[in-house]
Amino acid sequence: EKPSYQHSITPVLQYSFSGSFMDFEVIIGFETHVELKTQTKLFCSCAVDYEAPPNSRICPVCTGQPGALPVLNKKAVQFTVKAGLALGCLINRHSRFARKNYFYPDLPKSYQISQYERPFCQDGLLEITGDDGKLYPVGIKRVHLEEDAGKLVHSSSSFESSTHSFVDYNRSSVPLLEIVTDHERNPLRSVQEARIYLEKLRQILRYIEISDCSMEKGQLRCDVNISLRPSGAKAFGHRSEIKNMASFKFIMDALEYEIRRQSEILRSGGEMAQETRLYDEAKRVTLPMRSKEDAPDYRYFPDPDLVEIELDEGFIDRIRKKMPELPDQKIHRLMEEFDVPREEVLILTKEKAVSDYFTTCALSCADRKKLSRWIIKDLFKLLNKASLPMEQCPVRPDHFSALVNLIAKGEVTEKMARTILEEMFEKGVSPESVIESKGLKPIHDSFALEKMVDDVLAENPEALAKIKAGNKKPVDFLIGQVMKKTRGKADPAALTKLIQKKLR
Fold first, then answer.
1. Interatomic CA distance for residues 382 and 399, integer angstroms
2. How far apart are CA 493 and CA 480, in angstroms?
3. 491 CB-near residues (< 8 Å, 6+ apart)
4. d(CA 123, CA 182)
């Protein structure tokens, strides 16, 4: 899906109010929660296992038993710094953890270990690309590390009609990265921008391999903040926060609903309440949940069980030197190095696994443009049909590049190549073995091909008569008949020239 894109700090909404026009600016912010791809939890040695039975990956530490002491996971800190570098953040050498106090059944300690005034990363910038090819900045206020809560499972699919709930603490204390946009410095101003930002953020986090960002597994969730204000106003309006959104589609639907709801309240002279809301997926509306908390409501204070953290420059430099190629860097390199059109490069680089597959193939493939088109058009078709991600593609990169090389040299026709590729995909074999086993070598014998053409012309006198009368459509019919005789082994371009020559 290619979203339309508009970037402007001019008002995006206009309504007639009291005989004049009232214009509103939309301000959108995200608190994106990303579960990190560590083997163990943030403060204990319990395994991170999404398939485990409920409450089977817990211990006294992650369930908050009295006297149990947390020990920080170093890999989670490395992943946090890695994310900060990818998002252009300032990495704070001195940091610490705090207790965020609130009661909820999925929080066994009645507080969450998070970060407050000293996060690991702050003051970053993520550039999103519009349809016009230009880059637009989105401010990143902070990136901090915290522990995830447990998971509530309601007895009914409708939150309002639930009679009881179950709680699974397997997720409790899984390392969680919170990435907060800056509503004062380069905020998001439209639903289109919001979607592009989330897609770009997810892409970057997957490229640096700190999270799989699977929304189905709850590895990427968003709290969405949205407010409106009159055009030109300096003060921000009261915001609504929509909690725990885990679907790009529902996030966009919720934003569109909130823009309509808030604009109607402001247009009628009402005042917005600062509140937390839930999105009802069935009714496609947001519903009030509670008044919106501010930081003082959580009574943050430094966690007494965890020492403050000092990151030395060597630790940060080692992470910086091992940073992988980011999406924008890869887009630029593929365009420059392989001369592939930008539209195709954007498709190839959307997922890291696809871009890695392409670059591996390109090392042994002469025609990179043909390689790109065959991946996007033909290999994607087979993967989609089999419901397989690129990571599970049964066609090895060296086998795929060998097939494209055969096409480029004219040793197999494109029609034959698609038949060969289907067999390669099904059996995981090389193109040469398929050609050998199925007898799919193309016909290069010009005399044999010419004889087949003569036979087809002799067998279809009516088509010849129509062509001589000025109707050129039967030419395609004759080409098809020859291709049928050769079982697709003739080169269509050479065959067309030969038939046209015979018809002169």
1. 15
2. 12
3. 410, 413, 442
4. 8
pLDDT of residue 29: 96
Secondary structure (3-state) at 136: strand
The residue whose two tokens read 């997922």 is 351
Alpha-carbon distances, residue 390 vs 329, 384, 386 (angstroms): 21, 10, 11
d(CA 448, CA 56): 71
Q: How many CA atoms lie within 13 A of 19 on its CB side?
A: 0
- Report the relative pairing of strands 240-245 and 275-280 from DSSP bridges: parallel
| Cα distance between residue 288 and residue 279, in whole Å | 9
Q: Which residue has the tokens 């204070």?
A: 301
pLDDT in tens, 334-368: 999 999 999 999 999 999 999 999 999 999 999 99
> Across residues 273-294, what is the average pLDDT?
86
The first and second tokens of residue 198, run together, are 């989330």
Q: What is the DSSP letter of 68?
A: -
Number of alpha carbons in the 13 Å side-chain half-sphere of residue 261: 18
Determine which helix (DSSP H) or strand (DSSP E) holds 447, and give its type and residue range: helix 446-459
Which among 252, 250, 259 has a CA at the least distance from the CA of 283?
Answer: 250
Give the pLDDT of residue 416: 85
First to last CA, the chain: 48
Amino acid code (one letter) for 203: Q
- Whole-number Å distance between alpha carbons of 432 and 398: 12
Does the pLDDT at position 429 exceed 60? yes
Residue bearing the bigger pLDDT, 377 or 158? 377
Q: What is the CA radius of gyration of the chain?
A: 30
pLDDT of residue 78: 98
Q: How many CB atoms lie within 10 A of CB 107?
A: 20
Tokens 């004759």 sit at which residue?
478
Instruction: Look at strands 309-310 and 94-95 and give their pairing.
Output: antiparallel
Return the biggest CA–CA distance within the chain. Answer: 97
Query: What's the predicted TM-score (pTM) here?
Result: 0.83
Q: How many CB atoms lie within 10 A of CB 145?
A: 27
Question: What are the structure tokens assigned to 291, written together?
Answer: 């008044």
Alpha-carbon distance of 398 to 422, in angstroms, equals: 16
Burial of 99 (0-12, 13-18, 19+ CB in 10 A): buried
Alpha-carbon span 277 to 298, nearest angstrom = 18
Q: Which two tokens stand for residue 428?
A: 């995981």
CA nearest neighbour of 46 among 34, 36, 59: 59
Are 334 and 345 a contacting pair, CB within 8 Å? yes
115 contacts 303 by C-beta, under 8 angstroms = no
* β pairing state of 309-310 and 240-245: unpaired
